């Protein structure tokens, strides 16, 4: 009986420990999942990354004896740096942070400008820690898209400008229409020689199936409260008055676009470039759409001297369905971009 009692007590202890471990694990998993759902900032030190690549290549060019000496010198340097850091810690001195920082952000645009949410988080994070000597570089690629999406994305960059943080936008491939709306907020725009720049215009199109439906004896009823609640429709019969109002709305949006570009770049002859056309890097430079012809790589390498260059990315964890729909949307965006590159224009 004694043995059974002790055995039962032992089992109870084991069950208690297992349950406690399960509770702790579940709690940690839930916390981690909530954190991932909120998203997280990932900061990459591009200065260190570049230095490591440089050291690796330098080392590969040395013979065995030279490599041994190089490793010895590096070990000595690291030891001295660690000793100096320890001494500063003992004296209660903070680590030296005199180096200005360059915060590198990335924006790869889609038709709905879905990356604006991540850009918002990145800009907010940079504003929270940026010092007066810091600056921001945005690597931008976008053919444009919906007006409200790119308007909000441009407003996020405006936050940096309002805080007097120098902003450089680099374009390696395309910054057209809504993409250029974002770019023109910058203090400086740098374009690769054959990057597509401009397309300051607005376009909208909608198919109409009314005649087809009528031929099949299908009636469509559309009821609105407000004269211009619907101007053009997909299924109903469009009127000349509706078409005229639709064109007026497009022209108004175009005027707002032009005014925005003019405010951001007052020296630009907006009327000359706001024709919906696009230009390549060197042509864009001649027209005043950009300030320099160069690649983003050279811009960032040029800023590394005497500065700490950090890449900031906000990573949002996607649910399984979001991953599927997101992949489908990205495929559609790539298809639309190919059409655009064959002569079509983006929405904005």
TrEMBL record:
Enzyme class: hydrolase
Annotated keywords: Cell membrane, Hydrolase, Membrane, Protease, Serine protease, Transmembrane, Transmembrane helix
Pfam families: Peptidase_S49, Peptidase_S49_N
InterPro entries in UniProt: ClpP/crotonase-like_dom_sf (IPR029045), Peptidase_S49 (IPR002142), Peptidase_S49_N_proteobac (IPR013703), S49_SppA_C (IPR047272)
Localization, UniProt: Cell membrane
Peptidase S49 domain span: 160-309
Transmembrane segments: 12-32
Bias (Basic and acidic residues) ranges: 79-99
Broad class of where this protein is predominantly found: membrane
Gene Ontology molecular functions: serine-type endopeptidase activity
EC number: 3.4.21.-
UniProt keyword annotation of Hydrolase present: yes
Ranges where the Peptidase S49 N-terminal proteobacteria domain occurs: 3-157
GO biological processes: proteolysis
GO cellular component: a single term: plasma membrane
Disordered as annotated region, ranges: 72-99
Coiled-coil stretches noted in the UniProt entry, renumbered to this chain: none
Family: Belongs to the peptidase S49 family.
PANTHER family in alphabetical order: PEPTIDASE S49, PROTEASE SOHB-RELATED
Protein name: Protease SohB
Organism: Intestinirhabdus alba
Gene name for this UniProt entry: sohB
């Amino acid at each position: 009986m004694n043995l059974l009692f002790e055995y039962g007590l032992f089992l109870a202890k084991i069950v208690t420990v297992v349950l406690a471990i399960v509770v702790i694990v579940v709690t940690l998993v839930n916390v981690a999942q909530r954190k991932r759902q909120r998203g997280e900032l990932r900061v990459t030190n591009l200065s260190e990354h570049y230095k490591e690549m440089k050291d690796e290549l330098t080392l590969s060019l040395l013979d065995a004896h030279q490599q041994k000496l190089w490793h010895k010198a590096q070990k000595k340097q690291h030891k001295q740096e660690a000793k100096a850091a320890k001494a500063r810690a003992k004296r209660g001195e903070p680590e030296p942070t005199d180096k200005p920082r360059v915060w590198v952000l990335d924006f790869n645009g889609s038709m709905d400008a879905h990356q604006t949410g991540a850009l918002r988080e990145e800009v907010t994070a940079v504003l929270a820690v940026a010092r007066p000597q810091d600056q921001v570089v945005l690597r931008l690629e976008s053919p444009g898209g919906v007006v409200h999406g790119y308007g909000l994305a441009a407003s996020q960059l405006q936050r940096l400008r309002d805080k007097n943080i120098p902003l450089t936008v680099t374009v390696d491939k395309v910054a057209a229409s809504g993409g250029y709306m974002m770019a023109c907020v910058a203090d400086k725009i740098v374009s690769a020689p054959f990057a597509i720049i401009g397309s300051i215009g607005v376009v909208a199109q909608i198919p109409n199936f009314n005649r087809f439906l009528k031929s099949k004896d299908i009636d469509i009823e559309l009821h609105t409260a407000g004269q211009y609640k619907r101007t053009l429709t997909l299924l109903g019969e469009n009127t000349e008055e509706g078409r005229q109002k639709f064109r007026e709305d497009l022209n108004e949006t175009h005027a707002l676009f032009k005014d925005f570009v003019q405010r951001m770049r007052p020296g630009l002859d907006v009327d000359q470039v706001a024709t919906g056309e696009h230009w390549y890097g060197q042509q864009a430079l001649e027209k005043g759409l950009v300030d320099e012809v160069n690649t983003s790589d050279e811009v960032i390498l040029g800023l590394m001297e005497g500065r700490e260059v950090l890449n900031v990315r906000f990573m949002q964890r996607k649910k399984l369905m979001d991953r599927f729909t997101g992949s489908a949307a990205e495929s559609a965006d790539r298809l639309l971009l190919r059409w655009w590159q064959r002569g079509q224009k983006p929405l904005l």
